[in-house]
């Protein structure tokens, strides 16, 4: 898949977001904007991406910005800065998220714990998708490699938790279910505007977010990694993840609308 234009990747400082940023660059991206709540990590991704692009990639540029997706003003300012600097946003991938701190049954969960997860995954996703739609909707449409006209593509990272229930992480699962509904509704509303909006739902991927969750839930970790038990699971590394394969082979950013792709 050939990726062109300007891409904004949120959560680009580490984990899947960082890997997605590098994958887009490797596929021919000309401008990468890395955004993360940890600015130094976003800057590291942006700087390292030049090696991925190669010195022969004339005109390639990568920048980094701080953003807290829970804050409406910060999301609005980020999108405005990118649009003002580059004139358009062709691809937006939002992977920003936070893991459940530990396993807590809903009956024991505080409102603060439930709400804090929703603010990052659900409200944060809503703010990003809304602002990027507003930025894309007035852009001149471009012709894709498949000869379709598009004003841009938005891809949201959800989780297999959006497709079912997982014990002790009801706040996380509920937020991801909400994101699925948001993506599908936004896709229907904006298909006629030439804006594609899709989601990918990875399973267990070894990385900073999964490691943090398992550190707070040792019993879950032991059960998952029990090599002799029926609960034994294979944790894909980020490089092994089908998420990156889907970018390379399936044109997720350019073909489909309102799809949730389990990985």
From TrEMBL:
Superkingdom of the organism of origin: Eukaryota
CDD domains to which the protein is assigned, alphabetical: SDR_c
Extent of the signal sequence: none
Keywords of the record: NADP, Oxidoreductase
GO molecular function terms listed in the Swiss-Prot or TrEMBL record: oxidoreductase activity
InterPro entries according to UniProt: NAD(P)-bd_dom_sf, Sc_DH/Rdtase_CS, SDR_fam
Pfam families attached to this UniProt entry: adh_short
Homology family: Belongs to the short-chain dehydrogenases/reductases (SDR) family.
Protein name in the entry: Uncharacterized protein
